[in-house]
Amino acid sequence: MLCLKSYLIPVSVSVGFSRQIVEILNKHGVSFSSFDIFSDEEVRQGLKTYSNWPTYPQLYVNGELIGGLDIIKELEASGELDTLCPKAQKLEDRLKSLINKAPVMLFMKGNKQMAKCGFSKQIIEIMNNTGIDYETFDILEDEEVRQGLKTFSNWPTYPQLYVKGELVGGLDIVKELKESGELLPVLKGEN
User: Residue 15's pLDDT is what?
Assistant: First the structure.
């Protein structure tokens, strides 16, 4: 069974059983979210009844209870844990996916509707005047992408413009392409 998302309901990561299950999931590169049951007493009590499982932590995959720490340890020992839970996407794969999300992708501070810095505002104005459809990614919303893309692209600043998965450059490059009349062919992937 391959799952799309795993959920871990720990008492608290500082509590031994929850810490152990988090360590196991991290060791296996499992992608998971968590909910601190101490933050909501109604959820804490209601989940015990719902799942018919009296203790925490509780691991759910695709909305179904898998079990607590003992079950997870058994699944780990048998090798089933790796087939049951999704792996966290590696940063490089995630960046490639984001870069190729649209034929023209702009990584910037803010988005098409609201730039959050002067450089991003300038590049948005240029892009909007081309008539070419493009997507944006707000790097202020995701620090991992913000830092990782600088290394991945070997380009230290933002905004960064990509066409068909290839880095075109930042604001200065886009301005130069506009002035030379080459921007539109580049955005269309003709160069």
Answer: 64
* CB burial readout 127-163, b (16+ within 10 A) else e: beebeeebebbbbeeeeebbebbbebbebeebbbbbb
User: What's the rounded Cα separation, in Å, for the pair 157 and 160?
Assistant: 7
With tokens 């988005």, the residue in question is 111
pTM higher than 0.85 for the full model?
A: no
Residue with token string 């990509």: 162
Beta bridge partners of 34: 8
For residues 95 and 184, membership in a common domain is answered with: yes
Upper half-sphere CA count for residue 81 (Cβ side, 13 Å): 23
pLDDT at 110 exceeding the cut of 90 = yes
Which of helix, strand or coil describes residue 51? helix
Domain finish residue from 33, 50, 84: 84
Q: Judge whether 123 and 106 are in contact, CB under 8 Å.
A: yes
- For the segment 76-95, the average pLDDT, to the nearest whole number, is 84
Specify if 46 maps to a domain: yes
* Bridge partner residues of 115 (DSSP): 110
